[in-house]
Amino acid sequence: MDTILVVNAGSSSVKFQIFSIEGEGRLRRQIKGQIDGIGSRPRLRASGVRGEPLAHRAYPIELVSDVPTAMGIAGGWLRDELGMSPMAVGHRVVHGGPDYDRPVLIDHGVVARLERLVALAPIHQPHNLAPVRSLLANFPTLPQVACFDTAFHRTRDAVSDLYAIPHQLYAEGVRRYGFHGLSYEYIAKTLPHVAPEIAKGRVIVAHLGSGASMCALKGGRSIESTMGFTALDGLPMGTRPGQIDPGVVLYLISEKGMSPAKVQDFLYRDCGLKGLSGVSNDMRELEASEDPKAKLAIDYFVYRVGLDAGMLAAALQGLDAFVFTAGIGENSTRIRARIVDQLRWLGVTLSADENSRNAQLISRSDSRIPVYIIPTDEELMIAKHTLSLLLERPSPNARHNNVS
Ligand code: ADP
Fold first, then answer.
1. pLDDT tens for residues 95-128?
2. Which one of 80, 101, 149, 320 is the catalytic residue?
3. Which residues lie with the beta carbon below 6 Å from any ligand 1 atom?
4. What is the pLDDT of residues 17-45, one digit of tens each?
5. 217 pairs with which residues across the strands?
6. For residue 215, what are the β-bridge partners?
7. What is the DSSP string of 330-364?
8. pTM of the model
9. Which of 85, 197, 254, 334 has a CA between 20 and 30 Å from the CA of residue 191?
10. 66 a catalytic residue
């Protein structure tokens, strides 16, 4: 079976999926797995096509101390126990910077360019690149593809990429990039099958997960989003604050004596729903909590989604549909209901029944704007990109023929 391995590596976990390549370039998910607890309580868990468990095993901490070793264990398990040797590997890489407006085949030069972006995505990029480097060293002929969360937004008008700072900084790459692009690309490709006419129009997609952002799509293209230079901006997230006056950062440095490293850690790990509630970064736990601060954190989350939806509707000069996706967007009946209530001024009305059964269309038939739930699939997007770059690649024979 010809397969593609998709890798999404974080600081303490490596998520992976195997897709088989079927006739006419169609892809079929075969395995979903992850090694989590890296450096604490490492575990490999994997399941098959119908969710049947394939592996659930623990490892001693010293055996899985970092992401590359975890990748090695997952690769060894796939190869030795399932007899799978992927033809190519597609990686989620959060930041593609100004250079990459599409996925790219990885070589040492690409890795070097992506390493320069570590400061722009400090909790994601180093971990995304770690398995890339180890695979490049151990399997130098295995094709690897980097798929970026920023690439989908690169077609936006120049004005939406700007900050009002001297142009030299823009030239250096200080721009509003936008993230979650693989998720938005998947939604943009799926929407024509769900609502063909609407897909041609003006749509806000709310990707509400641990990381959260929204994107304004016009005719399936990103024209604006809530995130900027880094994945800190925009909506409040599990542990990130979202939009914050830079004066607060100056205050932390000058008045609280925090070093840049401390501020970075604070902004990426201690803010957002976690910081505001003091209870949890997890929306399920906040919804279950009786603590008034948990309620306040949810109130703020809902309020900011509504506020930023207004901004994106202005960028779109109107609105034809609103789409929920990702962990909170796909699963939380209550948060969706509250956000839709926040959008009432746009003429949106919710069907409580459809909402409570997580239907695809959850607005009422008299709603001026339809509201959808579309589960995202970033891994499928990565597998598709990887396959198409694999097919575009000149074969070693073709290259040889050209030379001779
Ligand atoms: P990521 O991929 O960024 O880690 P997810 O898209 O998996 O994040 O979303 C995780 C978030 O979704 C968490 O805040 C989690 O609490 C929330 N979530 C998942 N299921 C539910 C649910 N049934 N109700 C409320 N929130 C949920």
1. 999 989 999 999 999 999 999 999 889 889 999 9
2. 149
3. 209-211, 238, 282-284, 287, 326-328, 331-332
4. 999 999 888 999 999 999 999 988 999 99
5. 203, 222
6. 205, 225
7. HH-HHHHHHHHHHTGGGT--B-HHHHHTT-SB-B-
8. 0.95
9. 334
10. no
